[in-house]
Amino acid sequence: MTQLRLGDTAPDFEQKTSIGPIRFHEYLGDSWGVLFSHPADFTPVCTTELGYTAKLADEFAKRNVKVLAVSVDDVDSHTKWIDDINDTQSTQVNFPIIADDDRKVAELYDMIHPNASATVTVRSVFVIDPAKKVRLIITYPASTGRNFNEILRVIDSLQLTDSHSVATPANWEDGDDVIIVPSLQDEAVIQQKFPKGYKAVRPYLRITPQPNK
After folding, report:
1. Closest CA to 49 of 149, 117, 128
2. Distance CA 54, CA 56 (A)
3. Smaller CB count within 10 Å for the chain: N or C?
4. Which tens digit of pLDDT belongs to each residue from 7-53?
5. Dihedral pair phi/psi, residue 191, rounded to 5°
6. How far apart are CA 100 and CA 187, in angstroms?
7. Residues annotated catalytic, as ranges
C-alpha cells in the first residue's frame, strides 16, 4: 500500500461510482477535492456523515471544492444506501460515492489498517488542492463520526494561507486574526501586505487582522 504524505501528488484512479465511471483527476479539474472513506454501506455513523456532507453542498461550492465518498461496496448497494441517507437525513446526496469493491482506491490511499480491521476502510479524509497535491490527511476510528465543520475550517485556512504570507493560530475561524509568517521580515513588504498593521507579541509572533481573500 502507498503511504501518502502531505505534499505528495494524490494518486489518480478510474473507478465506478454512484454517478457513473470517473477518472479522479479529470473529475476534480481545477477544483479542490475532499476524498473521504467509509467502512461500509448501511452503517449508522456513515449515514449521518454523508447526510451532513450533502447539506453542506453550498459551503463546499463557494470554496470551489468537490466531494467524493468511497466505500468498499458496489454501485447497486450505494444506490440503495443513498435512498436511505436521503430519507433518514432529510437531504439529497449530491456527490459521487465511489464503488471500491476491488479495494483499488483503498489500497492507493492506505485506507485499510489491518490492526483496526482487515477488510473495511477506516474513516480517512484527504484534502487535495487544484494542483492535485495532498494538503490534509485525517484518520478517524470507525466508531467516531467526523467533524465536517473542521474540514471546512482547514480548507478556509489553506486557501487563505496559500494566497497571503500568513498562518492561522489555534482554533482560528474565518475572519479571526492571523499570524504573519516568521520568514517575512522586510518591513516595507509587511506594510504593503498588511496595511492594517500588526501587534508583535514576540518577534516571531506577530498578529494581524485577516487579509481579504
Report:
1. 149
2. 5
3. C
4. 999 999 999 999 999 999 999 999 999 999 988 899 999 999 999 99
5. -65, -35
6. 53
7. 46
Query: Grid coordinates standing for 138?
Result: 485525517
For 110, the grid coordinates are: 492506505
Cell 468498499 locates to 72
Whose cell is 468537490? That residue is 66
Q: Which residues is 126 bridged to in the sheet?
A: 35, 137
Report the alpha-carbon distance of residue 164 to residue 30 in Å, rounded: 20
Global pTM?
Answer: 0.92
Those residues whose C-beta lies under 8 Å from the C-beta of residue 173, and which sit 6 or more positions away, are 153, 156
Tell me if 22 sits within 8 A of 125, measured CB to CB. no
The count of other CB atoms within 10 Å of the CB of residue 188 is 7
